[in-house]
Specification:
250 residues, alpha/beta, Rossmann fold, globular
Length: 250
C-alpha cells in the first residue's frame, strides 16, 4: 500500500493509535503532520520515525480551539502542501460516571473535542481534496459508539455522532471521490485506555468473554488506517470498521 507523494494530517499523533498510524504512513511514503497539545510527545515521535520513506512534521495544536485548528491546516499546507489524508484521531473522555451526574460542561467539552474538531477539520481540508480530485478522511470512533458504555454517556454519545457524520459525509462527498470511513477500536493498549487494561477485574472479564482474549495493540489499528488511506480501498466509503478482538460479536 503506497502513499508516495501524499500529505497526511493526523490529530492526536504523538502517542498511542495516532503515532502507530503515523508510523505506517511514513513507512508507506507519505509526508505526515502529527498534531496534539503536547509538543514534547510530538517531537519525540518525530525523532523516532525520522528516516522513513516519508517525512514527518510535529505541530502543537489544541483541537478544541478553532484558531489553532486553522493554524494547523495552514502549517500543513505550508510544509507539505494540501491534505490528501485526514485522520481525526484526537479524543477525550471526561464526564465518566452515572448519566444523571453528567454536567453541561462535560458534554460540551466532549463534543468539542470528539465531534466539533472533526467537523472543523473536514471543512478546512475537504474542499481542497475535491478540487484536486479526491482524498480520504478517517474518523476514529469507538465500539462505545455502537454499544452503550455503562457510565460513559458523553463518550458513547459523541462517538455515535461521529459514526453518523462519517456516513453523511461519505454520501455527500462520494461524487467528488472523497472517501470517508470510521474505525471503531475495542480496548487498545494506550495511555488513553489505561484505566481499563490496568484494572484486573475488567481484564479478567474481558479474557473470559472476548473471542480474542487479549488487549489490542496500536499497530493493529495502524494497519486498517493504512488500508483506508491507500488506493487499495478505492471503492470503500461510508463504512465503520470494528477492530475489537470480537468483543461486540457476542
Amino acid at each position: 500500500m503506497n502513499l508516495e507523494g501524499k500529505t497526511a494530517l493526523i490529530t492526536g499523533g504523538g502517542r498511542g493509535i495516532g503515532k502507530a498510524i503515523a508510523k505506517r504512513y511514513v513507512e508507506a511514503g507519505a509526508n505526515v503532520v502529527i498534531a496534539s497539545r503536547k509538543i514534547d510527545a510530538l517531537e519525540a515521535a518525530a525523532r523516532e520515525l525520522a528516516g522513513s520513506r516519508g517525512k514527518i512534521h510535529p505541530v502543537a495544536c489544541h483541537v478544541g480551539r478553532k484558531d489553532q485548528i486553522e493554524a494547523l491546516v495552514a502549517e500543513t499546507e505550508r510544509v507539505f502542501g494540501p491534505v490528501d489524508i485526514l485522520v481525526n484521531n484526537s479524543g477525550t473522555n471526561v464526564g465518566q460516571g452515572p448519566a444523571l451526574e453528567v454536567t453541561d460542561e462535560a458534554l460540551l467539552k466532549t463534543t468539542e473535542i470528539n465531534v466539533l474538531a472533526a467537523l472543523r477539520l473536514v471543512r478546512l481540508t475537504v474542499p481542497t481534496m475535491i478540487e484536486r480530485g479526491g482524498g480520504s478522511v478517517i474518523n476514529m470512533a469507538s465500539i462505545a459508539g455502537i454499544r452503550p458504555q455503562d457510565g460513559g454517556l458523553c463518550y458513547s454519545f459523541t462517538k455515535a455522532g461521529l459514526i453518523m457524520m462519517t456516513r453523511v459525509w461519505a454520501v455527500e462527498f462520494g461524487r467528488n471521490r472523497v472517501r470517508v470511513n470510521a474505525i471503531c477500536p475495542g480496548l487498545i493498549k494506550t495511555d488513553f485506555s489505561s484505566y481499563f487494561w490496568s484494572n484486573e477485574q475488567y481484564m479478567s472479564n474481558l479474557v473470559a468473554t472476548q473471542p480474542l482474549p487479549r488487549v489490542g495493540e496500536p499497530d493493529e489499528i495502524g494497519g486498517i488506517a493504512l488500508y483506508l488511506a491507500s488506493d487499495d480501498s478505492s471503492f470503500v466509503t461510508g463504512q465503520t470498521f470494528v477492530v475489537d478482538g470480537g468483543n461486540t460479536a457476542r
